[in-house]
């Protein structure tokens, strides 16, 4: 793998991991529709996810350092559903990654959720134990390729009366244990691979980190300005296009 391809994969990871358009869905479509495209090896995929995880840790550094025991408990509760689903249904979920039509339908659902987020005013409630668990359930559902993790979790939080900013913040912080846990399971299941130059790993890591930071900022900007419909229209059009072709 050359550094240009590594940078491209880092770009895709940084954009789709946090923008509500489904990174897993785009990966399935790329593998199926782009000639010669292959999924990177396990270790490279893990490195890309570390890049976006570092982006969350950097962006929310002050917030993370000030987290109290209650909020950490909320994050732990929110992590449980995805952990259980990922562990017990791993094989069934991996089978979904080969069904392009299924992914297209889920992308349309993701688009509808994004359109709905713009329409909902959001509330003034904080994150409670109940809300954190329900947002965690949404995160578990988003393991299905085509369902955006950020879109599903933000939608759930806002629909429960949580302010849009708080819902987005909780979604991003909740992504850290989810991403790290998913990659640990991937390593245990598939092991590491070799043969990719060290420079490619470094480029992929840096690009996914930098683009991830930009993506986080865009999510907050579009939420505040009521422009989540952009992601909604994009996801719906992409899903319909894939079904047609």
Automatic annotation (TrEMBL):
One example GO MF annotation: undecaprenyl-diphosphatase activity
Residue intervals passing through the bilayer: 40-60, 72-90, 96-117, 170-192, 198-216, 228-244
Catalyzed reactions per annotation: di-trans,octa-cis-undecaprenyl diphosphate + H2O = di-trans,octa-cis-undecaprenyl phosphate + phosphate + H(+)
Coiled-coil residue spans: none
Domain of life: Bacteria
UniProt cross-references to InterPro entries, sorted A to Z: UppP
Main location group: membrane
Protein topology in the membrane: Multi-pass membrane protein
EC numbers: 3.6.1.27
One Pfam family this sequence matches: BacA
Keywords: Antibiotic resistance, Cell membrane, Cell shape, Cell wall biogenesis/degradation, Hydrolase, Membrane, Peptidoglycan synthesis, Transmembrane, Transmembrane helix
Protein's cellular compartments: Cell membrane
GO biological process terms, semicolon-separated: cell wall organization; peptidoglycan biosynthetic process; regulation of cell shape; response to antibiotic
Listed GO CC annotations: plasma membrane
Family named by the database record: Belongs to the UppP family.
Miscellaneous information on this protein: Bacitracin is thought to be involved in the inhibition of peptidoglycan synthesis by sequestering undecaprenyl diphosphate, thereby reducing the pool of lipid carrier available.
Function: Catalyzes the dephosphorylation of undecaprenyl diphosphate (UPP). Confers resistance to bacitracin.
Name under which the protein is recorded: Undecaprenyl-diphosphatase
Lineage of origin: Bacteria, Candidatus Woeseibacteriota
Gene: uppP
């Amino acid at each position: 793998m050359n550094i240009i391809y590594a940078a491209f994969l880092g770009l895709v990871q940084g954009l789709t991991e946090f923008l509500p358009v489904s990174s897993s869905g785009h990966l399935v479509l790329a593998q199926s529709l782009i000639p010669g495209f292959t999924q990177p090896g396990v270790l490279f995929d893990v490195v890309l996810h570390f890049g976006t995880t570092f982006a969350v840790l950097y962006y929310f550094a002050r917030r993370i350092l000030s987290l109290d025991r209650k909020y950490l408990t909320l994050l732990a509760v929110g992590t449980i559903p995805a952990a259980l689903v990922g562990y017990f249904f791993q094989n069934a979920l991996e089978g979904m990654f080969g069904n392009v039509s299924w992914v297209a339908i889920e992308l349309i659902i993701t688009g509808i959720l994004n359109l709905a987020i713009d329409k909902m005013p959001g509330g003034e409630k904080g994150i409670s134990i109940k809300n954190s668990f329900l947002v965690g359930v949404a995160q578990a559902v988003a393991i299905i390729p085509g369902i955006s993790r950020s879109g599903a979790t933000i939608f759930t939080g806002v629909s429960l009366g949580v302010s849009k900013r708080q819902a987005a913040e909780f979604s991003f912080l909740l992504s850290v244990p989810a991403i790290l846990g998913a990659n640990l399971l991937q390593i245990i299941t598939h092991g590491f691979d070799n043969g990719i130059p060290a420079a490619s790993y470094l480029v992929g890591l840096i690009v996914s980190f930098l683009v991830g930071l930009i993506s986080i900022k865009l999510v907050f900007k579009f939420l505040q300005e009521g422009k989540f419909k952009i992601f909604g229209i994009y996801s719906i059009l992409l899903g319909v296009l894939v079904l047609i072709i």
